[in-house]
Design goal:
The structure is a homodimer of 433-residue chains. Helices cover 44% and strands 20% of the residues of chain A. Chain A has 16 helices and 16 strands. Chain A has two domains: 230 residues, Aldehyde Dehydrogenase, Chain A, domain 1, CATH 3.40.605.10; 144 residues, Aldehyde Dehydrogenase, Chain A, domain 2 (3-Layer(aba) Sandwich), CATH 3.40.309. Chain A has a seven-stranded parallel sheet with strand order 10-9-11-8-7-12-13. A four-stranded parallel sheet of chain A has the order 5-4-3-6, sandwiched between helices. In chain A, a hairpin with a 5-residue loop joins strand 1 and strand 2. With 433 residues, chain A is an alpha/beta fold. Chains A and B meet through strand 2, helix 11, helix 16, strand 13 and strand 16 of A and strand 2, helix 11, helix 16, strand 13 and strand 16 of B. Chains A, B: It catalyses: L-glutamate 5-semialdehyde + phosphate + NADP(+) = L-glutamyl 5-phosphate + NADPH + H(+).
Amino acid sequence: MTAHASHNERTDSDVGDIATYMTNLGQAARAAATRMRRTVTGDKNRALLAMAEQLQHHRSEVMAANAADLARGQESGLDAALLDRLALDDARFDAMLEGLHQVAALPDPVGEIDALRSRPSGIQVGQMRVPLGVIGIIYESRPNVTLEAASLCLKSGNACILRGGSEARESNAAIAACIRRGLREAGLPEATVQVVATTDRAAVGQLISMPAYVDVIIPRGGKSLIERISREAKVPVIKHLDGVCHVYVDATAELDKALAIAVNAKTQRYGTCNTMETLLIDAPVAEELLPRLASAYAEHGVELRGCERTRAILDTITAASEEDWHAEYLAPVLAIRVVDGIEAAMEHIDRYGSHHTDAIVTEHYGLARRFMAEVDSSSVMVNASTRFADGFEYGLGAEIGISTDKLHARGPVGLEGLTTRKYVVLGDGQVRQ
Amino acid sequence: MTAHASHNERTDSDVGDIATYMTNLGQAARAAATRMRRTVTGDKNRALLAMAEQLQHHRSEVMAANAADLARGQESGLDAALLDRLALDDARFDAMLEGLHQVAALPDPVGEIDALRSRPSGIQVGQMRVPLGVIGIIYESRPNVTLEAASLCLKSGNACILRGGSEARESNAAIAACIRRGLREAGLPEATVQVVATTDRAAVGQLISMPAYVDVIIPRGGKSLIERISREAKVPVIKHLDGVCHVYVDATAELDKALAIAVNAKTQRYGTCNTMETLLIDAPVAEELLPRLASAYAEHGVELRGCERTRAILDTITAASEEDWHAEYLAPVLAIRVVDGIEAAMEHIDRYGSHHTDAIVTEHYGLARRFMAEVDSSSVMVNASTRFADGFEYGLGAEIGISTDKLHARGPVGLEGLTTRKYVVLGDGQVRQ
């Protein structure tokens, strides 16, 4: 009865030898990537819209597959948060369809040559944006990631191999079937998007060890998954590790703005990587600002943990330990430290932060400029909430993740991060002297 | 009597425990990198020019150190090519000084924000070019690499840890002493450039395993060195692997241009990675072009190895084996294959090439366009010699290597490749809704 069977997906039992199966996926992906390099934008967009139509047409089958996953999850005792991430309802389904339309409407980064410069030798030299090739994406329970990842890889001209969580296997298989039908309808190779049809963990080990067939791995999930994959991968990994984000309120800050930013950065959402985890306050404004902050946070039920100087002003809060300065709480908990000026604030950020997103609140021009130049994080902000560190808020139109790496892509990764630039040289018979 | 002793360099015997020694270098480099983030262009340029003055002032000591290295090399039986790479003469010394002046004259990439865009939320978002941080460079015998690497890392705002070949240890120590004096004179931290003072191989193992202190490793040297380092490194590596470069002469090519390009791409220099190793010729022009090519190559003493169809026209040449298509000869040897059109040519390039540099010679607009879009190499050329794939020829003003990676930097790497871009957000109290 499951969508799994009805879509003729291969099950765990019939992929055969995992190494052979993954090598076959890899070879097919490489061939599809070669074909995708010459696929024009219109065909890619047509495939995206055809996928949306297929999903709409097979909506009940996808929902039935999801219901089967949910039933199995409940039986096996998955926790409520995981079941929630796994569940598709009409709103989430509609959001998936809407996402495909949005990606189709984005400008295609492939083929862009930003400048073609003439050199003394007579050649013209430029850099052309091209797909990376084959992208492997490893993720956990949310089935809508299957579609999101597939659409971004497709639009950027890449082939992809997707490995979702075992909890979502029937949902993913049903979505994959719609993706394949959409690709076929648009005349693109079906291997442009392949969903790994086995939940055997060995498949992940294979996927990250095939440099001949996979150009980059993007793991989406918890820190331990990402660390393990980075450690074991034989291909480059675009990592998204933790966000220990700071807001530093300088003595010249307008305190109303500081209050609004500090509250928003902590409370707008607790579980996101761009949520503030430690608030640093310049000593001269601590006495005025801390009580106002404390009452605002109390309204949101945020637990405060402070340094000695903070506790001298807010005497009812817990003492922050060394561990608190390192903590990514992802919860209604905030560490607060009173510091003496921007140097001390930047030292704290450098020492304890994760170089993800850090903000200063100040009206001092020179300090704003220093903070921007010197804080070594993927996003550095002046007078804005750290919660803005996001591909959509930044105008990328999409986001496959937020890179905490320094090389290649840093910060929110959109379509551009799924491409690379090669040199193109145009001549008229030039030779080197 | 050696410069080694006279400059008070530490010798192999007194660095003590290698792990501790390297950790100390790493910590000092990290601190210097933090300071370098706020160092303005003028101070960096002053340091570069001060280094040039110091080198000029201590020229005889550096030359004496080099003479000591050469003497030791001769004693230990280094081959002539290695001794040549090791040797400094007046011309090479002058070129080093000139290089420092050139790097000082280059525009500083750091701090550049290409565009700052307003978002609906009211924030402005841009990307600022910033140093990578600490760069580890591992290289072989040429002592001028010490200065070249140091100057490019400094200009791009990075700290670096340099590990040269043991053959050049006294030369490198003498050059390092001049670099340090130049940094001191300009008021920059001496740890901005550190030369590893031990030739113990364990130091390399440590250098590539300190992600807390080193942001990226750039190995410069033979393929086996680079492969070993890539395999073992725990930090990202910018790789420069082999160049199996192709020229494809299409049937519509102007044969005089094809001849000039094919001869230049092979013979202008044999030992470089952008030298053509395989020539592909479209069948309709093979009969006319091959004899002309053969006589041109004969003048240069290039040995030809051909496919069956090539040998049907040039019947005296050796048969090319499967191995020849994979070969990076770095020598006066060329593999030639007659193919049927651009599809076959691109298939050959994809299958046997190393994705370094590949060129088409054609007067057909559509084929030129296809070749540019579809050949997945770091440099793709139309009607120009592959030998142009070079940072100076491309106008980068400098070159630390040619990356064969797809991520981060691809092709010739200049100052920009030693930087990364972080997001900067300017607001006026904005919070996320």
